[in-house]
Specification:
The structure is a homodimer. Chain A is mainly alpha-helical. Helix content of chain A is about 55%, strand content about 5%. Chain A has 3 domains: about 1-215, Clc chloride channel, CATH 1.10.3080.10; about 235-325 and about 335-475, Clc chloride channel (Orthogonal Bundle); about 500-655, CBS-domain (Roll). Chain A is built from 25 helices and 11 strands. In chain A, the strands form 4 sheets. Chain A has a 3-stranded mixed beta sheet with strand order 3-5-6. In chain A, a hairpin with a 7-residue loop joins strand 5 and strand 6. In chain A, helix 17 (about 420-435) runs antiparallel to helix 18. At the A-B interface, helix 9, helix 10, helix 18, helix 19 and strand 6 of A face helix 9, helix 10, helix 18, helix 19 and strand 6 of B. Chains A, B: Belongs to the chloride channel (TC 2.A.49) family. Chains A, B: This is Chloride channel protein.
Chain lengths: ~675, ~675
């Protein structure tokens, strides 16, 4: 569908340009993208082989039109059927895995619509990728499958394990990177990742990769998206440009996150948010208008990355490999560094313009109401920057091979600098700057490219990029979007180091009235109903007596309301003055008194408690590791207060000098 | 030093055979292991070029003698200076990371002696590897470095993070596999692995890999130990032999663990354990005697693995590549499958004998009083089995290429089966069977060999192997050794699914006398001393009063003893009848009474509590995730009992029908 924007294959409209010409008998290796079966729209409509200026304008116009059609369909479907299908979905999946529930987010409608609109959005030529949304799609599949098995339908924790594995399978399919997928799920998506989940995710990712290989989508028995093979090892001194790429990636990542968040906040708070369709159409039109004239932006982003990663071989006819041939040209694959030819000069300019376009348009694209991933655009920005630096280094080494720094490893006639490797490192750096992944990033990159020899350059770039980006802003793009949307997400990566105690955070505060509690054997139905009506808490602690304040258990508001209501209707003798018993054994009833209501079975007998002197550092740790929603606070065995997840989040925000009221809690 | 067993280099005794001949001007590529500078001991001692039967016997004798000398030195040093330097150290490091303290295990003596004896043990030709011990060595370094920084010296949790990172660096150096190292630390070694540790381990592993690359130990700018490049992709049908290898690996792993544990238990319980030196010497002599006549056992195990992984090229002169040349021999690297030559027949027999030797001798070697790792021997067993199967498959395909299963992908003249790949898969399967690693195993294997294309075969073999081995015995070798040694290790991978409650596990039992507690303001120094003398508990809960049993805090026995002792000596007026106050504010003293002892600062004011109704499933989870040593049990706000880690471990053992008394606790 991406190629449909440019033309059509006469053998069948579902073939893309490359595939169309594969089947053509008249194609040579050199001209493998030119064949009579593939017609641009201008050729087809004017029935002429040659395209003039008019043909160009016609192609241009139809390119934009197709792009608008695709994106319009995408946004229409998303708006109409599944509003949750937009965006990458990774921030929400992180939140869901941390224990928050967003109803319908992983439902069948989201799955269906996201799958269809993702195809449309990617082929519309917008600056977005399919990888993040594929994680969401995989999690939808996982969630829907969970409903088939009682074990998983009933148990929230088990379901989250399935979702972690699904995320791994999603990345495994998106990149053909099974191990990278498992690590991505571990590092970026999952909140709590027990070891048995690691093993199961691994299995899911294996099956996903295996299925992918059986389908063989790239026609080369390879799993990976951008297979590259470089011929020369890298030199230690090259670490300097690699680290420069890391710095660029970090700066771009931080800049991107800031600008994107500012733009998204603007969308949330101003009138802009009311016209999502118009926004999508305007951005699509702008992207298409600016992209068409430049060869490198007109092609799909994954093709672009693939070309940038590529090492030039002798037979390569692409513009990027247009070098002046060396005087003593060698046979075989090893090519010495050569001077740039005119084609490469043009390509350099075009790449610079492409960099500029991708740099800015992605900021406005990510967050629109269409499915949109960030991996491919980030990698494209990095790959362009890397390739440019690589070509620059190569020319520098060629023309100044007598410089001290090139002595010894870059003599004339040697193949010392591989621009494709720079593109790969740059891509890793930019992706790292945006997402702040480390280990999973490196694994994905080398699974993606097969470049195992280049772990150290990739690691150096990924780490520099993370450091630089972290120095400017602590949060990765996903965490930033979580905070922007106000999801109650307790970040597991950052340490809480302040010296506050549980008593400083718990409710009620020192000046407030005492905690609302129920007693185990002295309150009537009326009393309890009054408390339920007066307060909005979602649960109440039950104590032995108001005087002793000794904790018995915890009861949920919802359970209480339902039980009292049904008892009043169905159980005989339950009136407002009936006493509610939470105890195990009930005393014998005095004669003529209303019958009692036994609610012991509602009680959570093992509520979590900490003492008021517990440092908040430990409380935060407990909330994170045990995934609690609330925790009771005691002093010398007496119940004193309660800390909810919201209180913890607000306290962390307060300590970090952020606005505590930005934390929502549905 | 390994080659010193066979001969000596005249240019300098520190050169090994290969290195010695590199520098020789008279060597051709074909005869690169024959050069006049390298002399076997027989050649040197008899001053003759030709070796007769006598020379062979002389070489044999000296080979055994050198082996005995090396292993004698190793065991002497271990016995004399650092008893903790023996074994692989991974079970102990796992235990240490789970919160148990073994004093001196990571000290400077262990570091020094283990480094030296590891060299000796490996060069003695015993069936052991250097990888596991290198993890121990790295952890020693990490621990010693921790002592330099107050932040890490004082904080146990921080130190454990450093040790996790050190383990990653250790594997990174051992295999040249930085990412595999991080995953090994995560999957196998570390108990609790927060995400920030992932990132730091990654950094440590990067620096380790980078340093290794700068030193360039293999002289080929490659990080990896066994670099291989295969020329043909694998076929789907080959998954059947790969899964067979997985089954073999699983069976071998389970068999090895059972036999090794049985032998180690025998060593612990019988007289055998009293003669560790004799044991080492006997095993060394036996290994050397059986190893010398066979070329494949005489060479070092890593050389053997390297040769087994190797894909045969045209110029390869090794016995394993002795095929009959094909009638229409092609130029280049792609070699069609050919019939086996006489050399390969001999090699097959020798490999079978080598398999038999390694199969059995490793059982007796692992666990002796010398540093010994398991990675290399396990991989060797698997690689031999895999290579044999690979050669078998190749010959089958060559001679029966008309069979249905070979149709289409294995036509005559095609290079369809790569025996080296089978060796690699076999090595992964056996290593997986012994250690039960999954993700880290696959990552290490492909970092080790550069075989990124072969993730699916490796994963299939690793998983089959784990399933088969798990079906026979649940524990990997490290867990089995932890249990053999009775370390208090709470396994994080297995779920606790029984329906018991905290009250069933806590002490005191229902029939026992009540829990020993201290009161906060009514006990005298004498009372407390009496309690300390009567009981052996390592800590006591402090309550408001014996009647209320309301919990105030927890005090450690050690702190109490020290404080009372020093107060009696240094503080005026402290006598046996002085009252100990754990309260915040002390009441005014009545006149003429002995002065009081304030010990509030000893009190842990935030002891962990659960209610008696808490399911043990949750209690086990809390112990694991929070790394607790004990936890107090309350009922309706009253202190009822205590659960220690030992109680939890005993309960788990009891539920699994194991002997609960096998759990030690120092």
């Amino acid at each position: 569908m991406t190629d449909l924007k440019e033309g059509v294959c006469l053998n069948g409209f579902w073939y893309n340009h490359e595939h169309c010409c594969w089947n053509s008998p008249q194609t040579t290796f050199q001209d493998r993208d030119k064949c009579p079966e593939w017609r641009t729209w201008a050729q087809l409509l004017t029935s002429r082989e040659e395209e003039g200026a008019l043909g160009y304008i016609l192609n241009y116009f139809l390119y934009v039109l197709w792009a608008l059609l695709f994106s319009f369909l995408a946004v229409l479907l998303v708006r109409g059927f599944a509003p949750y299908a937009c965006g990458s979905g990774i921030p929400e999946i992180k939140t869901i895995l941390s224990g928050f529930i967003i109803r319908g987010y992983l439902g069948k409608w989201t799955l269906l619509i996201k799958t269809v609109t993702l195809v449309l959005a990617v082929s519309s030529g917008l600056s977005l990728g399919k990888e993040g949304p594929l994680v969401h799609v995989a999690c939808c599949c996982g969630n829907i499958l969970c409903h088939l098995f009682t074990k998983y339908r009933k148990n929230e924790a088990k379901r989250r394990e399935v979702l972690s594995a699904a995320a791994a399978a999603g990345v495994s399919v998106a990149f053909g990177a099974p191990i990278g997928g498992v690590l991505f799920s571990l590092e970026e998506v999952s909140y709590y990742f027990p070891l048995k989940t690691l093993w199961r995710s691994f299995f899911a990712a294996l099956v996903a990769a295996f299925t992918l290989r059986s389908i063989n989508p790239f026609g080369n028995s390879r799993l990976v998206l951008f297979y590259v093979e470089f011929h020369s090892p890298w030199h230690l001194l090259e670490l300097v440009p690699f680290i420069l790429l890391g710095i660029f990636g970090g700066l771009w990542g931080a800049f991107f996150i800031r600008s994107n968040i500012a733009w998204c906040r603007r969308r949330k708070t101003t009138k802009l948010g009311r016209y999502p369709m118009l926004e999508v159409l305007v951005v699509t039109a702008l992207t298409a208008l600016l992209a068409f004239p430049n060869k490198y932006t007109r092609m799909s982003t994954s093709e672009l990355i693939s070309e940038l990663f590529n090492d030039c071989s002798l037979l390569d006819s692409s513009q990027l490999c247009d070098y002046r041939s060396a005087p003593n040209s060698t046979q075989g694959d090893d090519l010495p560094d050569r001077a740039a030819g005119p084609g490469l000069h043009v390509a350099t300019w075009q790449l610079m313009l492409a960099l500029l376009l991708k740099f800015f348009i992605t900021i406005f694209t990510f967050g629109m109401k269409v499915p949109s991933g960030l991996f491919i655009p980030s990698m494209a920005v990095g790959a362009i920057a890397g390739r440019l630096l690589g070509v620059g280094m190569e020319q520098l080494a060629y023309h100044h091979h007598d410089w001290l720094i090139f002595k010894g490893w870059c003599s004339p006639g040697a193949d010392c600098i591989t621009p494709g490797l720079y593109a790969m490192v740059g891509a890793a750096a930019c992706l790292g700057g945006v997402t702040r992944m480390t280990v999973s990033l490196v694994v994905i990159m080398f699974e993606l490219t097969g470049g195992l020899e280049y772990i150290v350059p990739l690691m150096a770039a990924a780490m520099t990029s993370k450091w630089v980006a972290d120095a400017i802003g602590r949060e990765g793009i996903y965490d930033a979007h979580i905070r922007l949307n106000g999801y109650p997400f307790l970040e597991a990566k950052e340490e809480f180091t302040h010296k506050t105690l549980a008593m400083d955070v718990m409710r009620p505060r020192r000046s407030d009235p005492a905690l609302t509690v129920l007693t185990q054997d002295s309150m009537t139905v009326e009393d309890v109903e009054a408390i339920i009506n007066e307060t909005t808490y979602s649960g109440y602690p039950v104590v032995v007596s108001r005087e002793s304040q000794r904790l018995v258990g915890f009861v949920l508001r919802r359970d209480l309301v339902i039980s009292i209501e049904s008892a009043r209707k169905k159980q005989e003798g339950i009136v407002s003055s009936s006493v509610i018993y939470f105890t195990d054994h009930c005393p014998p009833l005095p004669p003529c008194s209303p019958s009692m209501l036994k609610l012991r079975n509602l009680l959570d007998l093992s509520p979590f408690t900490v003492t008021d002197q517990t440092p908040m550092e430990i409380v935060v740790d407990i909330f994170r590791k045990l995934g609690l929603r609330q925790c009771l606070v005691t002093h010398n065995g007496k119940l004193l207060g309660i800390i909810t997840k919201k209180d913890v989040l607000k306290h962390i925000a307060q300590m970090a000098n952020q606005d505590p009221d930005s934390i929502l809690f549905n």
